[in-house]
């Protein structure tokens, strides 16, 4: 292999067993991950799981208590924030209201010692990249929220950081705008080829934008994978429950071998399904994705249920059902595809391929 290939596959960021304590609070408990060059990598998890703390450690706003962070192989612990080739886009974009858009973007470059003409030329270039070239002479107050966030993005991209950190950058925008800015952000990331480390607690945002996602909870990494891996092959209860919607059923696994579990379902039917790494025989939790359960005639299918309620969701209807053994189970049916069973109807349920997975705890 040539040295060029080795550089191209180098990790932009390596987080190596990082622990972060604030007094008695441990925000990160030995977190490790590698973020590739040019990768859109998302830290996803509920409030307080440590996402922002990890981002602040990469940026240099916080020191790590233990472990190391490397940028393209170099330990960045000794470097103050402004010497690290990373830049951050915050939720609050904090533009200078009295400056034009162009001045806002070139300001940081001038502080880094760029000449006025180089700073302006680069600012114009990044404003074109975020499609705000024609707004260069406006002031932030004359722009929409989405446009202001794009100015903040241009400002962060201007000095050509090796890694861009984004801390919930879309959360101040309303839903429609957030969806539009999502695809723009993804396109800009592809075009620049810079590694983006994106923090969000919004699973839909993470699934739609990321090359890979690290799901975090309580200062631990629960799983790292592509959006499809995280959704279709969650490794444990936390991930299955946090990503998308799922039913968690208490079941008995008679046998687990080579990643396949033999399950005894409530009601007595048997099911063979994939098992997460670490899932064992005995009492366990089965994840059943509601959109992969099909309706069958009573007595047919692997589970028997009674419909208790419907929730109309536009494209889908959620059926709240109860199994004969007492557990609640949600089924999601596409509207228009078939008749939606009435409340009180008795049904059989088919567990389609990919619906079921035995989880580890
Ligand atoms: P959110 O989505 O709400 O921003 P988060 O996942 O980014 O949450 P962090 O802000 O990283 O979570 O916080 C992780 C934990 O560390 C929390 O328990 C938080 O209370 C604690 N913490 C964060 N900053 C400090 C601090 N400066 N001093 C003490 N504890 C802190």
From TrEMBL:
InterPro entries cross-referenced by the UniProt entry: AAA+_ATPase, ABC_SmlMolc_Importer, ABC_transporter-like_ATP-bd, ABC_transporter-like_CS, Mo/tungstate-bd_C_term_dom, NA-bd_OB-fold, P-loop_NTPase, Transp-assoc_OB_typ2
Q: Does the keyword Transport apply?
A: yes
The protein's superkingdom reads Bacteria
- The answer on whether this UniProt entry bears the keyword Nuclease reads no
Which positions fall inside the ABC transporter domain?
A: 13-243
Q: Which PANTHER family match?
A: SPERMIDINE/PUTRESCINE IMPORT ATP-BINDING PROTEIN POTA (PTHR42781), SPERMIDINE_PUTRESCINE IMPORT ATP-BINDING PROTEIN POTA (PTHR42781:SF4)
- This chain's protein is named ABC transporter ATP-binding protein
Say which species the protein is native to. Answer: Salipiger mangrovisoli
């Amino acid at each position: 292999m040539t040295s060029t290939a080795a550089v191209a596959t180098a990790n932009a960021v390596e987080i190596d067993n990082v622990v972060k304590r604030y007094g008695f609070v441990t925000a990160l408990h030995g977190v490790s991950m590698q973020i590739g060059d040019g990768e859109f990598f998302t830290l996803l998890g509920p409030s307080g799981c440590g996402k922002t703390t990890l981002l602040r450690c990469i940026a240099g706003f916080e020191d790590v208590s233990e472990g190391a962070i490397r940028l393209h192989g170099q330990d960045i612990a000794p470097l103050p924030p402004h010497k690290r080739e990373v830049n951050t886009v915050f939720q609050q974009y904090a533009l200078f209201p009295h400056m034009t858009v162009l001045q806002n973007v070139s300001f940081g470059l001038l502080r880094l010692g760029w000449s006025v003409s180089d700073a302006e030329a680069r600012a114009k270039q990044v404003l074109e990249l975020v499609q705000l070239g024609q707004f260069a002479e406006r002031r932030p107050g004359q722009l929409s929220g989405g446009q202001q966030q794009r100015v903040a993005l241009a400002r962060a991209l201007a000095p050509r950081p090796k890694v861009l950190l984004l801390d919930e950058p879309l959360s101040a925008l309303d839903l429609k705008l957030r969806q539009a800015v999502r695809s723009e952000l993804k396109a800009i990331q592809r075009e620049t080829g810079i590694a983006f480390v994106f923090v969000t607690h919004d699973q839909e945002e993470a699934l739609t934008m990321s090359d890979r996602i690290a799901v975090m909870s309580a200062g631990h990494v629960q799983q790292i994978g592509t959006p499809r891996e995280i959704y279709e092959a969650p490794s444990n209860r936390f991930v299955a429950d946090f990503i998308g919607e799922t039913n968690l059923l208490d079941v008995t696994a008679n046998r687990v071998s080579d990643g396949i579990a033999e399950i005894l379902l409530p009601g007595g039917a048997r099911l063979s399904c994939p098992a997460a790494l670490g899932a064992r025989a005995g009492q366990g939790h089965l994840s059943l994705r509601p959109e992969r359960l099909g309706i069958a005639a009573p007595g047919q299918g692997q589970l028997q249920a009674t419909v208790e309620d419907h929730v109309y969701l536009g494209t889908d209807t959620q059926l709240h059902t109860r199994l004969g053994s007492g557990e609640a189970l949600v089924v999601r049916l596409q509207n228009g595809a078939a008749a939606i069973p009435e409340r009180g109807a008795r049904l059989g349920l088919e567990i389609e391929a990919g619906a079921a997975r035995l989880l580890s705890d």
